[in-house]
């Protein structure tokens, strides 16, 4: 994407963002309201940019053919994902597969595979309304991966997962990132450190930092240990540097 701009009335959510993403797990970090969701929504083709250019799978997103092709090839877990509580897990994931125009003959096996990947095989025929919040979140991840997407967009996927599930989920992320482009927004710096191949820090609609989790951690290596781990301190240092830069140096 180049010059990507998203405005909501008078708020500028993204302000001329240039980024490209290849295979791997890309973490999007940033404070509340930084613009992470706006970025993911554009890539998921559910929001139209106000300005700039976005290419997905080699085509410009404004072309109807690219748009339709992209929708089949991507997986998306929104922050608040809508589902039908009366559907079973199997029915819901199969419904999403149908929306993505997956071939009917391969759908049942793909649904079972996706549900097994998130550790819900034993609840596949349970109605979603009977599941816990963390399990519903995992159904959200299953529906996002059912079509083995080449681009997987996850907005706060670890919210509501317990620590054990988070650890399992990170290993699923690493596995998915071996073959696909995975973009994951999170507030949890530890998710980034554990699962991401690179990290992009968004602040006030701009890219404040991009690098590996290791290089982000290096920024926080010299800090006070009572101020969190090195990645958290690196995050704070990168944000601070960006804010200083925005205000013309030294006055922030
Ligand atoms: N539909 C909307 N209408 C008006 N303003 C919006 C809308 N969606 C987002 N915004 C504003 O755009 C900015 C960026 O929001 P966005 O949701 O992209 O941030 P975020 O980084 O995902 O935040 P969070 O971590 O809180 O989810 C914020 O100032 C937000 O208030």
From TrEMBL:
Keywords on record: ATP-binding, Nucleotide-binding, Transport
SMART domains: AAA
Gene Ontology molecular function, alphabetical: ATP binding; ATP hydrolysis activity
Domain of life according to the entry: Bacteria
Domain named ABC transporter: residues: 1-229
Keyword check for ATP-binding: yes
A Pfam family of this chain: ABC_tran
Family: Belongs to the ABC transporter superfamily.
Protein name: ABC transporter ATP-binding protein
Organism lineage string: Bacteria, Bacillati, Actinomycetota, Actinomycetes, Kitasatosporales
């Amino acid at each position: 994407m180049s010059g990507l701009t998203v405005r909501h009335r008078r708020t500028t959510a993204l302000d001329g963002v240039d980024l490209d993403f290849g295979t791997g797990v890309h973490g999007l970090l940033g404070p509340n309201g930084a613009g992470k969701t706006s970025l993911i929504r554009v890539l998921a083709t559910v929001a139209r940019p106000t300005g700039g250019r976005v290419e997905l799978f080699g085509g410009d997103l404004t072309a109807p053919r690219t748009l339709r092709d992209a929708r089949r090839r991507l997986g998306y877990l929104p922050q608040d994902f809508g589902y039908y509580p009366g559907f079973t897990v199997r029915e819901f994931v199969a419904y999403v597969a149908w929306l993505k125009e997956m071939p009917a003959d391969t759908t049942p096996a793909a649904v079972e595979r996706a549900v097994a990947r998130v550790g819900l095989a034993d609840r596949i025929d349970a109605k979603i309304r009977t599941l816990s919040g963390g399990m519903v979140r995992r159904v959200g991840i299953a529906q996002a991966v059912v079509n083995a997407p080449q681009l997987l967009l996850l907005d706060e996927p670890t919210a509501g997962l317990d620590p054990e599930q988070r650890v399992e989920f990170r290993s699923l992320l690493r596995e998915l990132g071996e073959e696909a482009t995975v973009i994951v927004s999170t507030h949890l710096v530890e998710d980034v450190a554990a699962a991401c191949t690179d990290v992009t820090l968004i602040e006030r609609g701009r890219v404040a930092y991009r690098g590996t989790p290791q290089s982000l951690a290096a920024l926080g290596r010299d800090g006070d240990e009572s101020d969190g781990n090195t990645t958290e301190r690196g995050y704070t240092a990168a944000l601070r540097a960006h804010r200083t830069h925005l205000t013309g140096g030294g006055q922030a």
